[in-house]
Amino acid sequence: MSSSVNTSPTPAANAPRNKPSRVVLASLIGTTIEFYDFYVYATAAVLVFPHLFFPTGNETTALLASFATFGAAMLARPVGAIFFGHLGDRVGRKTTLVASLLTMGIATFLIGLLPTHAQIGPWAAVLLLLMRLVQGFAIGGEWSGAALVATENAPKGKRAWYGTFPQLGAPIGFIIANMLFYVINLSLAHPDEPGVASDAFLSWGWRIPFLFSAVMVIVGLWVRLKLVESSAFENTKEAGKVSKMPIAVAFKLHWPALIRGTFAMLATYVLFYLMTSFTLTFGTRPGLEAAETLAKATGGSFDAAAYVPGLGYSYNDFILMLVFGVVFFGIFTLVSGPLADRFGRRKTLIWVTIAIALFGFLFAPMLLSGHALVLFFLALGFTLMGLTFGPMGAFLPEMFPTNVRYTGSAVAYNVSSILGAALAPIIAVWLWAMADGSPAYVGYYLTGAAVLTLISLILTPETKDVDMEA
């Protein structure tokens, strides 16, 4: 890891090559689309895919199968990180960002056109998995490129602030995706039973958010095609320091940074997926009595001993509660930037990670204690999410020199997605089922992840004053 401090920057080195507004928009639009795609898929994985692509006859098994395809994308992300990281460090940030965005957009659009199990049998699940893997492959190169656009073009002393703009794509993508699902669900006469989708929604309504992504991708491509390369990459290229094999150099010379960066993101990823996928599943799952009543009304069998109850909110009600929480996510993502610029990335993240570890003990007391505390839980969890996610836009790129920065930050970010994201929904559902409907063990899982992240942060040097031109 480069640790040289830029004590005498030259005007040429620090001259902005892109307008600040263009930097902000280019870094924000791609991650907004990335997280929009994630939330659209996550919502469909709860409401749609278990019924249309994995009709196993057992609700919990179908849900786990659906989440398995959801998590499969995380396995493809490190492969995408290596491919797009190589492209980004060899050819340039701009070309790579355009390629990753286009690949991701095509895959998401095609999911909206897929036939279901009723039409082509098991091949429906195979095609869904394939498109999900392509999504993951493309996302593997998206975040890192967006973070580099923001931080390599940032004014001195404001890298963490600029680095929060690609992070802001997460809450914005959530709100767009879920409000679109909400409007579609509401307009298609969603029934009163919690967790039950209408026939029209299951037939064609769920496809609209996937198809709509094409509009966002076109806007994103238009913005990114107007970018020029950062001075950091151009200086490296002119000096002949571009690596022929960035991944080999990253693993040979910067493997400690790769390991520390991977575990530094662990708690962030686990919290992120628990606050979105798990809470949506847990919140909209009918309670025991409601599920039994529904089964009797529809003439189905019901095994109370095997059923895993949830909070029993309707999808429409709970999604509004999530949007309420995500507002805090967006606000505190922006708040985290100035904090990390002033106090340092490491110190800021250490204190936030300690708070996340303590938050894990509140899952059962707060989620099982009534509507007001559920809302407070969501607000608190998403506040912590903003405070831990925001500084990562600068923290991970700062760990690596320019010639392997795209590859190094992308690999760390996306390998962490396997450890903290691919497994999180599956582990959470399993722990929830094992505890007979209590979310207590799910919270302890988050606490364990936070402890590992805390150890990584303690072992990581401060990166606030690292020279990103090196």
From TrEMBL:
<dbReference type="InterPro" id="IPR005829">
    <property type="entry name" value="Sugar_transporter_CS"/>
</dbReference>
<dbReference type="GO" id="GO:0005886">
    <property type="term" value="C:plasma membrane"/>
</dbReference>
<keyword id="KW-0472">Membrane</keyword>
<feature type="transmembrane region" description="Helical">
    <location>
        <begin position="253"/>
        <end position="275"/>
    </location>
</feature>
<keyword id="KW-1133">Transmembrane helix</keyword>
<keyword id="KW-0769">Symport</keyword>
<feature type="domain" description="Major facilitator superfamily (MFS) profile">
    <location>
        <begin position="23"/>
        <end position="464"/>
    </location>
</feature>
<protein>
    <recommendedName>
        <fullName>Putative proline/betaine transporter</fullName>
    </recommendedName>
</protein>
<keyword id="KW-1003">Cell membrane</keyword>
<dbReference type="InterPro" id="IPR020846">
    <property type="entry name" value="MFS_dom"/>
</dbReference>
<dbReference type="Pfam" id="PF07690">
    <property type="entry name" value="MFS_1"/>
</dbReference>
<comment type="function">
    <text>May be a proton symporter involved in the uptake of osmolytes such as proline and glycine betaine.</text>
</comment>
<feature type="transmembrane region" description="Helical">
    <location>
        <begin position="411"/>
        <end position="435"/>
    </location>
</feature>
<feature type="transmembrane region" description="Helical">
    <location>
        <begin position="120"/>
        <end position="139"/>
    </location>
</feature>
<feature type="transmembrane region" description="Helical">
    <location>
        <begin position="349"/>
        <end position="368"/>
    </location>
</feature>
<dbReference type="InterPro" id="IPR011701">
    <property type="entry name" value="MFS"/>
</dbReference>
<keyword id="KW-0812">Transmembrane</keyword>
<feature type="transmembrane region" description="Helical">
    <location>
        <begin position="374"/>
        <end position="399"/>
    </location>
</feature>
<feature type="transmembrane region" description="Helical">
    <location>
        <begin position="62"/>
        <end position="84"/>
    </location>
</feature>
<feature type="transmembrane region" description="Helical">
    <location>
        <begin position="441"/>
        <end position="460"/>
    </location>
</feature>
<feature type="transmembrane region" description="Helical">
    <location>
        <begin position="160"/>
        <end position="184"/>
    </location>
</feature>
<dbReference type="InterPro" id="IPR036259">
    <property type="entry name" value="MFS_trans_sf"/>
</dbReference>
<comment type="similarity">
    <text>Belongs to the major facilitator superfamily. Metabolite:H+ Symporter (MHS) family (TC 2.A.1.6) family.</text>
</comment>
<feature type="transmembrane region" description="Helical">
    <location>
        <begin position="23"/>
        <end position="42"/>
    </location>
</feature>
<feature type="transmembrane region" description="Helical">
    <location>
        <begin position="318"/>
        <end position="337"/>
    </location>
</feature>
<feature type="transmembrane region" description="Helical">
    <location>
        <begin position="96"/>
        <end position="114"/>
    </location>
</feature>
<feature type="transmembrane region" description="Helical">
    <location>
        <begin position="204"/>
        <end position="223"/>
    </location>
</feature>
<keyword id="KW-0813">Transport</keyword>
<dbReference type="GO" id="GO:0015293">
    <property type="term" value="F:symporter activity"/>
</dbReference>
